[in-house]
Write a structure and sequence with these properties.
The complex is a heterodimer of chains A (290) and B (275). Chain A has 290 residues and is an alpha/beta fold. Chain A is built from 10 helices and 13 strands. Chain A is 35% helix and 26% strand. In chain A, α4 packs across α5. In chain B, α4 crosses α7. With 275 residues, chain B is mainly α. The chains are: A alpha/beta (290), B mainly alpha (275). At the A-B interface, α2, β6 and α3 of A face α8, α9 and α11 of B.
């Protein structure tokens, strides 16, 4: 369990990144912090592995105040996946994945065997093991980033806009695979994004942040969509634009789901005809709003 | 070489229009004519003074002359290589000291770097040749040349390394932090490997500087290429010919080194573009 207690972060020079933030994240839960830039979401996430120390307040993991833990040891026990992967360009894929386990004292051969398994789990071809990051596509690099985050078998996985820099099709694919991964691994995931659709897709719970790390609303995607706390939340999730109010229109003998402006959002699937691809995301929206 | 500089120019300037192209062509022709005239004038002067006589040049094909100059070339390469092998790692240590969080170490490094970077190498050589012996400290001729080269070169390469370390992407420091590398691990496994790759071309150019600095060997009478040439002149009196031959040797070596640096640079740019 991760707990934030009245956390505040002020930078020298007076910039107030986080005013007063409290939240509890249960074990095996995935929580998405979503907000625009300046909402302090990344700052908050980095407090968990002590890349940022709060000015006041407490962050604890399973009851231990993180400030009582050695930052280097703490970070090695927490997986971290960052935007643009942050891979080491002069090391091969396999060496990138095994960096942390080897530092923690795992035998090199054992770490490499495990790394091969991880590559399979995140959907990377074994032939890529000896390649360098620059020889991979953006989506493949992100997969290596996820494999590296999982390499030390951490209980907690922090993900800082990990899919922000890849194209929409690859992003959808990576999001889907993360869902599958989480179904099997049940890590505690803290995920940061500015994309509300991504947040609703990946979060068991979603915390929508205003500037200054103030929680506008926290809850399951269903709760937030069904009952937005205020206008800020409504506008953030797109409810005010009618993007979330869907209804069915019949076109060429098929049921097309359209939003309030009549823009198509997807096709209503016949029972047993769940199409792959984008349908998964749209399917959920449809289920909720019908 | 020309291709890299051409693309660099295109990035920095707009492509010239028809008027500009005509002006550039005119200026190019004028300067070529001017340079050709100067060369012809020089050759004419040489001819008028009998410097172009074949007998004054043919001697440089004689085995003993070549061996004499070859001995000097060997001396030059030996001095340069030894100075580089010691000065470059030392420069790296100085750069790290300058970036250290420990203030006294930082001050020491800054003082060292600024002192030896600012002072002409000739003065350092004089210190070893004239000043130190007055206090009873003497070195063999070889070291009277190599030590000043190391002192000066370590200071300049320290700045090269520092620039390289600073040039490593901030995201890489962050990534190293995030996955739990200690400061030392991050330096050894993440920052230095990338910094050294970044500055490799600049280091080769530092080698060119070092090679040219070795000509100060004549001050301490160490048998490097230029000093051998000086000796040769005092025997044959063929001043123009000897120094022209020596210049060509220096230019060829430095050209090869510069080519190597550019090739490495291009390879790294290609790699960076692929990412």
């Amino acid at each position: 369990m991760i707990g934030f207690e009245n956390v505040r972060k002020e930078y020298p020079g007076g910039t107030l990144a986080v005013q007063d933030f409290s939240l509890e994240i249960a074990s095996h839960e995935s929580v998405v912090l979503v907000g625009t830039s300046g909402s302090g979401k990344t700052t908050l996430m980095r407090m968990i592995n002590r890349m940022v120390d709060p000015t006041s307040g407490r962050v604890h993991i399973d009851g231990d105040d993180v400030t009582s833990l050695d930052p280097v040891q703490l970070r090695r026990s927490i997986g971290y996946v960052m935007q643009a992967s942050g891979l080491l360009p002069h090391r091969t894929v396999l060496d990138n994945i095994t960096t942390v386990p080897v530092l923690r004292g795992t035998a090199k051969r054992e770490a490499r065997t495990h790394a091969h398994e991880l590559m399979e789990i995140v959907g990377l071809d074994a032939a890529l093991a000896e390649r360098y990051p620059s020889q991979l596509s953006g989506g493949q690099q992100q997969r290596v980033g996820v494999a590296r985050g999982l390499a030390a078998d951490p209980n907690i996985l922090l993900m800082d806009e990990p899919f922000g820099a890849v194209d929409p099709i690859v992003r959808a694919e990576l999001q889907r695979e993360l869902q599958h991964l989480q179904r099997d691994l049940r890590k505690t995931i803290v995920f940061v994004t500015h994309d509300i659709d991504e947040a609703f897709l990946l979060g068991d719970r979603v915390a929508i942040l205003r500037p200054g790390g103030i929680i506008a609303q926290v809850g399951t995607p269903q709760e937030i969509l069904a009952d937005p706390a205020d206008d800020f939340v409504s506008s953030f999730v797109g409810a005010d634009r009618g993007a979330r109010t869907l209804h069915v229109e019949r076109v060429d003998g098929r049921d097309v789901v359209v939003d309030a402006d009549g823009r198509p959002a997807g096709v209503l699937a016949a029972s047993g005809d769940r199409s792959a691809g984008e349908g998964a995301a749209d399917g959920r929206t449809r289920e909720r709003s019908s | 070489m020309s291709t890299t500089s051409a693309t660099a120019t295109q990035v920095l300037f707009d492509a010239p229009g028809p008027k500009g192209r005509r002006r550039i062509l005119l200026l190019s022709i004028l300067s070529v004519v001017l340079i050709a005239a100067l060369l012809i004038g020089a050759l004419w002067q040489f001819h008028a003074n009998g410097q172009l006589e074949p007998s004054k040049w043919i001697v440089y094909l004689r085995a003993d002359y070549l061996a004499f100059l070859g001995h000097g070339l060997w001396g030059t390469l030996k001095v340069t290589a030894l100075a580089a092998v010691i000065a470059f790692p030392f420069g790296l240590l100085l750069a790290l000291a300058r970036l250290s969080r420990f203030l006294p170490l930082r001050t020491l490094a800054v003082t060292w770097i600024e002192f030896f970077r600012g002072i002409p190498m000739l003065l350092v050589v004089y210190a070893f040749l004239l000043a130190l012996p007055a206090f009873g400290v003497t070195f063999p001729r070889f070291w009277m040349l190599v030590i000043p080269m190391i002192l000066v070169s370590s200071a300049t390469t320290a700045e090269v390394f520092r620039a390289g370390i600073k040039a490593v992407d901030v995201g890489q420091h962050e990534a190293a932090d995030a996955i739990g590398l200690s400061r030392r691990d991050s330096l050894v496994h993440v920052v230095l490997p990338q910094a050294v790759r970044l500055v490799l071309p600049s280091l080769i150019l530092a080698l060119v500087t070092l090679l040219k600095d070795s000509t100060l060997g004549y001050v301490v009478s160490y048998n490097e290429l230029q000093f051998q040439g000086k000796t040769l002149v005092s025997i044959t009196r063929y001043l123009v010919q000897t120094y022209l031959v020596i210049s060509v040797i220096y230019i060829v070596i430095n050209l090869l080194l510069t080519r190597l640096a550019l090739a490495l640079d291009a390879r790294m740019k290609a790699r960076a573009a692929a990412s």
